[in-house]
Amino acid sequence: MKKKVLTVDDSRTIRNMLLVTLNNAGFETIQAEDGVEGLEVLEDANPDVIVTDINMPRLDGFGFIEGVRKNEKYRAIPILVLTTESDAEKKNRARQAGATGWIVKPFDPTKLIDAIERVTA
Amino acid sequence: MSYLAKNLTSGARELIAFRIGDQEFCVNIMSVREIRGWTPATPMPHAPSYVLGVINLRGAVLPIIDLSARLGMKPAEPTVRHVIIVTQVKSKIVGLLVEAVSDILTIRDEDIQPTPDMTSEFERTFARGVLAIEKRMICLIELEAVFPQTESEAA
Amino acid sequence: MDMNEIKEIFFQECEEQLAELESGLLRLNDGDRDPETVNAVFRAVHSIKGGAGAFALDDLVSFAHVFETTLDCVRSNKLEPTQDVLKVMLKSADVLADLTNVARDGGSVDQARSAQLIRELEALAKGEAPPAAEAPAPKAAAPKAASAPKPAPVAAAAAPNDEGFVPVAFSFDDFGGEEEAMIEHPAYEVVFKPKSELYTKGNEATLLLRDLSRLGEMSIHCNMDSLPPLDQMDPEAAYFSWKVSIRTDKGEDAIRSVFEFAEWDCELDVIAADAGEGADGETEELPMQPVPFDLSALDEEPHAPLGVVEEEEQIAAAQEAVTAAQTASNVVQMAANTSRAAAAEKGAAAAAAAQNNAQQASAAGQTIRVDLDRVDRLINLVGELVINQAMLSQSVIENDSNGVSSINMGLEELQQLTREIQDSVMAIRAQPVKPVFQRMARTVREIADITGKSVRLVTEGENTEVDKTVIDKLAEPLTHMIRNAVDHGLEMPEKRLAAGKSAEGTVKLTAKHRSGRIVIELSDDGAGINREKVRQKAIDNDLIAADANLSDEEIDNLIFHAGFSTADKVSDLSGRGVGMDVVKRSIQALGGRINISSKPGQGSVFTMSLPLTLAVLDGMVVTVAGQTLVVPLTAIVETLQPDAAAIHSFGATQRLISIRNSFCPLVDVGRILNFRATQANPVEGVALLVESEGGGQRALMVDAIQGQRQVVIKSLEANYTHVPGIAAATILGDGRVALILDVDAVVAASRGQPLNLETSLAAAG
């Protein structure tokens, strides 16, 4: 069975990069454009791992993570956050919201896949 | 298939020959999109006299050139027996009014003789060469020169 | 999809983000203090930076980073977005746009300008006034994003949280452990005690241990001492800790980085042990219960119990505990304790709010992106459908003289449907004029900078929609007019103050729909047209006779004449070798009209009226000298049946028609188009009263009116050339081509004015 990854990012560029990278690595990829959509598709997507951006319209990454963690079924799902450089403040807030780990942008395919492998069995 | 191969290897080409009055002319078949009967054209204001007007060709507006007048001969009086040769040069499509299509010729490049050394405007502008076929003389037309928009550039 | 396609997407997205950025900044400039506006602006820059990073567009990343940092200060209320701050930001948005263009199309940017803006942005972030242009010696033009100094206020705020999150370089490259077998690598003792938070954040001790095992040979001991009796156990709590002895050449940092994600949610000790001892952990004083730990099982069967405990009575408890440790991946339904219940309630409320947002957003309209070629193909096909439907109707009418058959009724419905399909398809191409208006904001800023004038651009009706082709072709004439308005229209600040106006000039750009057309107005509150100067210039250039008697309106419209320029010195700005005549011609090429009205001392208003689409038009079908022509309905004011008494000869050839006590020149369309040699008798025809672009009226004489209908516009230029007096062609119900009259050109020709019509006429005659 392919592992399912839900990606949440408002940038079309990043969404496409994630899609290509994850599909090439043999993941099944479901994509949402912001936190609200991410929560909406969560049940249907039934992902094994989530990769989310922080800065998004409507509902940002922090809110999205909190939303996922409040869902009985997904409260323990691994969530990786896409962050830039070493933005400590953001990483900290993401962790408080319940993020499992982070991927520093600009990500390269290896880093992304490694991080996912790291948090999934 | 064998025909195509022959075409490619021996430098042979196909031409469509047609009649205007008692003269025969031809153009490269590759430039011909279709041949259709005459339908009345909508006249264009301020057009050169050889432009008969425009017709509707499946949604496209197609100018019709009276080739006889264009070549400096007597203007045609179109009848239902006249035909329009729809030709294309680059992106433009133009219909040429002629009396009748007479032949499809397969020739080789060396069959084309240079136009006899004459100084008339017509020879220099429109004729690319002449062919002698079964005692007939057929003049190969330079299509691009016939098209109306190239006229101003040539002039 | 390959990287190049994604890059293409990135640049498309950049354009959208830049538009978003600019409109957001302009809203802030207008006093909008909605946090979401600031957020949207921040996100736009952030998005561009993120994508640019992925394509290693370093210049773009560097600039976006500095910009983003300053915007973050605004976002966190550390920097007040004053007009001065926004001025820097708007300029920065322009530079960001330039950098994006350069990244896509090559070329170079104004390095000095971007370096200056980087300094200004950094100064703002530090809470200083922007440095003057000549200030610090230029440092490296584009500092690397990562090394760009963090602005003090932000750094200070972030400091308490900083520790522990310094990014650690590490590599997953060599997971294979084969090569280590022969060499004695340094040994480490790792004590790892997860807190329950570790599991609630989706981390798993087992996975961390698996990763650790990839660093080298190791043995694991599980300490289960804190495991409570079963009835007191919280299935979500963490009770185990592990002691791992590992030999690795990767170093302590590599070990710590395995726990990078879990660092906060566990106790972690990494001690370099003596190579001799420590490997089996027996000298350790910690009361560890050794538990054989089968890691290989993990790879095959992730949910298998982790450990097998020898003592029988412990097995059940251990398995229970291990399961608890695994709640991270196994879904365990359980009664929530009170605090969790409260949290869940809050979550439900948040989710409901999110749901609301989502609904609002979908009410605002969902969109899909479609290739323009597909839309155009659809539009062409619908055009064919309209023609075919008309042809079918016509032939049915001709063959069914009683005209009441059911076929007829069916045809009427078909006609209705066809029309609706056509309208809907046309609407697909309709887009708001907003992007063009936004581009004008930049033009205004630039020219205001160069001329030293203070200008405010006000826009209205940005969401007015018009066909994309019209929008695309509108930018150029509009840019020129805006330059003109600022350069020639507005006065210098001192002069404005002296005239009792505010120092800041206003240029207003509005769009609205009016009777099936889009009307765009560009007004300024400048000095207005200097009619004396324009008149003199026209006389000097032989455009008018020295004693010509012209109305104010006619003088104003002289500026649209070819080669006319009122600037005393040739201005590099509005000039650029392009006159208002070119503007007028590009508007006309779009089937539009342009007018100017000006009040001395109060400014000028340019009014452009353009068709909403270039694909169809409502026309009046008329007969002229046996030919069928279409006259755009928008041009026609009224139709008249002239009687002999109303026709007056004027001069040698001119005739006037009297309409309600005023005289209007008669224009014989058949004569102008050279369809006939002599003038027709007006009494035998119909007069179409048209409004020409100069504002004056003309009566176009045609032989008869056939009716009104919508026609699909077909290009004459595609296979032929432009024909003076003819705007385009169309195909009527009988399948024949009809020509669409260019009313303005015909009126102009009747004045004996421009167009090469005169020469054509002379040649033809």
From TrEMBL, chain A:
Q: What residue stretches are annotated with the Response regulatory domain?
A: 4-120
Mind listing the UniProt keywords for this protein, alphabetically? Phosphoprotein
What PROSITE patterns has UniProt attached to this entry?
Answer: RESPONSE_REGULATORY (PS50110)
> Which InterPro entries does the record cross-reference, listed alphabetically?
Bact_response_regulator, CheY-like_superfamily, Sig_transdc_resp-reg_receiver
Q: Which residues carry this modification: 4-aspartylphosphate?
A: 53
Q: Could you tell me the superkingdom of the organism this chain comes from?
A: Bacteria
Q: Which Gene3D superfamilies match?
A: 3.40.50.2300
| A Gene Ontology BP annotation from the UniProt entry | phosphorelay signal transduction system
* The protein's name in its UniProt record: Two-component system chemotaxis response regulator CheY
Automatic annotation (TrEMBL), chain B:
Q: Which PROSITE patterns match?
A: CHEW
Q: Which residues form the CheW-like domain?
A: 12-152
Any one GO cellular component localisation term in the record: cytosol
InterPro entries registered for this protein in UniProt: CheW, CheW-like_dom_sf, CheW-lke_dom
Q: Which ranges does the record mark as transmembrane? A: none
Coiled-coil segments on the chain, per record: none
Q: Which Pfam families match?
A: CheW (PF01584)
Choose any GO biological process term that the UniProt entry carries and state it: signal transduction
Source taxon at top rank? Bacteria
**What is this protein's name?**
Purine-binding chemotaxis protein CheW
- The scientific name of the source species is Rhizobium giardinii
TrEMBL record, chain C:
Indicate the segments forming the CheW-like domain, all copies. 616-752
Q: What EC class does the entry list?
A: transferase
Q: Does the record carry Transferase as a key word?
A: yes
Q: Where is the Histidine kinase domain?
A: 363-614
Q: Which residues form the HPt domain?
A: 1-103
Q: Name one GO cellular component term.
A: cytoplasm
**Entries under Gene3D superfamilies matching the protein:** Histidine kinase CheA-like, homodimeric domain (1.10.287.560), Histidine kinase-like ATPase, C-terminal domain (3.30.565.10), HPT domain (1.20.120.160), SH3 Domains (2.30.30.40)
Q: Which reaction does it catalyse?
A: ATP + protein L-histidine = ADP + protein N-phospho-L-histidine
Work out whether the entry's keyword set contains Amino-acid biosynthesis: no
Keyword field:
ATP-binding, Chemotaxis, Kinase, Nucleotide-binding, Phosphoprotein, Transferase, Two-component regulatory system
Q: Which PROSITE patterns match?
A: CHEW (PS50851), HIS_KIN (PS50109), HPT (PS50894)
Record-level Gene Ontology MF annotations: ATP binding; phosphorelay sensor kinase activity
Q: Which residues carry this modification: Phosphohistidine?
A: 46
Instruction: Write down the superkingdom of origin.
Output: Bacteria
The record's function comment reads: Involved in the transmission of sensory signals from the chemoreceptors to the flagellar motors. CheA is autophosphorylated; it can transfer its phosphate group to either CheB or CheY.
Q: What is the official name of this protein in its record?
A: Chemotaxis protein CheA
State the species of origin: Rhizobium giardinii
